[in-house]
Amino acid sequence: MTYLRTSRSASGLVLLVLVSIVALIPRSAATDARVPLLDLEAYRGKVVVVDFWASWCEPCRRSFPWLDAMQRKYGEDGLVVIGVNEDNASEDAAAFLKAVPVSFRIVRDEDGALAREFDLLAMPSSYVIGRDGELAIRHLGFKSAKLGEYEETLRHLLEPGMAGNDSAR
Amino acid sequence: MSARTAKRAFVVTFVMMLGTACTSMGVEPWERDVLAKDRMKLVTDSVEAGLDDHIYFSKEASSGGRGFGGGGCGCN
Amino acid sequence: MSKKTTGNIAKGLATATCTLLGTAAAAPVSAEEQPEWEFDTALLFYGEDAGRVQDLSLNIFARRLFADERILSVGLAVDSLTGATPSGAVPQNEVQTFTRPSGESVYSVGSGELPLDDTFLDTRYALTAGWQQPLGRDYKASAGVSFSTEYDYTHIGTNFGLSRDFNKRNTTVSLGLALARDELDPVGGAPVPLSAMADVGMISGRDSSTSKDVADLLLGVTQVINERLLVQFNYSLSTASGYLNDPYKILSIVDPISGEAVGRTPAPGLEGPLHEYRFESRPDKRTKHSLFGQGKYWLGGKVLDLSYRFMTDDWGIDSHTLDTKLNLPMGETSYLEPHVRLYTQSEADFYRVSLLDGEAMPLFASADYRLGSFNAVTAGLKYGWQTGSGHDVAVRLEYYRQDGDIPSDQLTGNQDSASLYPGLNAVIFNISYGFGK
């Protein structure tokens, strides 16, 4: 009898210890319902270009005016360009934007968390997400020779929801 | 271990270290802000480097050695 | 970003970059135009003391940037050289007379003076051109040509380069190849090696022109260590074959006991040398190996540049070069850059201070101090700034000094290394101006 009581209280004690240990383990962020770094869900139904840039990235001086032109040209057809800035100092980003002003949304990614999430392999890079929320294409670098190709990708993705759906445009 | 074997072992270890180290060393593409600066280029003034090379080539028995490529912002 | 989108991105990445569209492209919106031309110009003055070499050099280097990292570069350099270099003969306590390389007249140096050969006034023109472009995402290729000419020397060369990036551009492996053909047309022709310096008008048996071929191979690795440190390691191989002598350099023949130059009498009615001299002789092949390492380190705004080069060749010369610069920003637009370079080399196997009277003539011999053993130091300061219009200006002042290190077994009789070794003291002054960047 004594044995049964002891074993029950012993196992109770062990259980208590185990539960406290589990309760005290720091939870990794992934298991929490957290605020997303970039809320792309809000843009579902639109074509989103997520472009990673920095003030020290020379090709970005060429890509920005082009991205801005794309935003203006296809904005009403549902194109959203988001520039994710990787500068450590916001003054550098501000100076760049003063020299190369754009009308699209700029997001700061100071600690590189967004870059890591997107598995950024090169600067600059742009990730084009279709109206269905799926990644359609990733461009590494910005090549002047491929401008036609880049624009054609956007037109192709924008087509389903375009105003008037005039594919002959 | 003879001196020759020790020397070989050192060279092999060093090369292996270099090989394995190179695959894990470095920075992420978005962390190259300092490396992108002009002052961090391996040769900051190529005209000056050429002038100096020519002087030392004329006055000494050695020349060259410097290379090209690498570093910088790694863009495009 | 929702977990679903993250997961989709991960899946999408595997195939997305391969998506290509076959439809005809609409007229593309062009990217912003870049400044097309970049220029770097420099004016350099190099001056040695005691009537020796002075060089004034003007350099212009231009780069034309095309779309997508394609670059055309062109360079022009004009050098005006004056002054004299040590001929290799040793100073004596009496007047020495030498026949000029042209064989048409003589020149003399006083007692105790270092014999200098002043046939060295000329203007040199050099031209370079190169093209560089990426090949795909990971490779960069370059090719170029070089040409230079002066009154007794013509150079023509070509170079190729290929580099490949690894590990998200943290590692770059480079391969370089340079080939050159140089033609020498020495004044008076190329003297027969180890032949005696003759009287005026008695030059014979000489080739009017000679040539040499040079091939250089470079293998390099550049590695990003961390955000602030970049290193490079290179191995170079250089082979030269053909006429490698300096046609104007000589050796004195000295008495094996006293170390004094052996006298001679010119032929009756002719002017000529009053002592015995022989023209130098070098092997017709040379192979050099170099190992080079460099690091650039960012110290919170300052940049430290440290490099080391080891060179060894089959002429028996070993050299070590240690070079360091510290770039110190001064305010927003200017900088100060102190520079120190330490150099040491050991002598060539066939380097001789002088030849001994009565000994069997060696196969190769040269008294050219540039093949001897010496230590050298360069110390300098550079100050640079950016003008209001964004142009880069810099001024640099450096002092270069060579001190001989002649081993005592090279000395004969009364010879003493202090008066024998020419040594060198030179000033380098350089103004640079860059614009278009």
Write the layout of secondary structure elements.
The complex is a heterotrimer of chains A (169), B (76) and C (437).
Chain A: H1 2-24, E1 47-53, H2 60-74, E2 79-85, H3 90-99, E3 105-108, H4 113-117, E4 125-129, E5 135-140, H5 147-158
Parallel strand pairs in A: 1-2, 2-3
Antiparallel strand pairs in A: 1-4, 4-5
Chain B: H1 3-24, H2 46-59
Chain C: H1 3-16, E1 37-48, E2 54-66, E3 70-82, E4 85-86, E5 96-99, E6 106-109, E7 116-117, E8 122-135, E9 139-150, E10 153-166, E11 171-184, E12 210-226, E13 229-242, E14 250-254, E15 277-279, E16 285-299, E17 302-313, E18 318-330, E19 334-345, E20 355-356, E21 374-386, E22 392-404, H2 417-420, E23 424-435
Parallel strand pairs in C: 14-20
Antiparallel strand pairs in C: 1-2, 1-23, 2-3, 3-8, 4-7, 5-6, 8-9, 9-10, 10-11, 11-12, 12-13, 13-16, 14-15, 16-17, 17-18, 18-19, 19-21, 21-22, 22-23
How would you summarize what this structure contains?
Chain B is mainly α. Helix content of chain B is 47%, strand content 0%.
* Average pLDDT rating of chain C: 90
Radius of gyration of chain A using CA atoms only: 24 Å
Q: Treating each run of at least 4 consecutive H or I residues as one helix, how many helices of chain A?
A: 5
- Greatest interface and its participating residue counts: B-C, 41 and 74 residues
Mean pLDDT rating of chain A: 83
Q: Report the CATH superfamily of chain A.
A: Glutaredoxin
> If you compute it from the alpha carbons, what radius of gyration of chain C comes out, rounded to the nearest whole angstrom?
27 Å
Q: Which spans of chain A of ≥5 residues are poorly predicted at pLDDT below 50?
A: 26-34
What percent strand of chain A?
A: 15-25%
Order of helices and strands of chain C: HEEEEEEEEEEEEEEEEEEEEEEHE
CATH topology of chain A, by name, is Glutaredoxin
Q: Span between N and C termini of chain A?
A: 89 Å
Global outline of chain C? elongated
Q: Note the quaternary state here.
A: heterotrimer
Biggest sheet descriptor of chain C: 16 strands, antiparallel, barrel
Beta-strand proportion of chain C = over 45%
CA-based shape of chain A: elongated
> Structural class, from secondary structure content of chain A?
alpha/beta
The main sheet of chain A comes to:
5 strands, mixed
Written as H for each helix and E for each strand, in order along the chain, the element string of chain A is HEHEHEHEEH
Largest sheet, spatial ordering of strands of chain A: 3-2-1-4-5
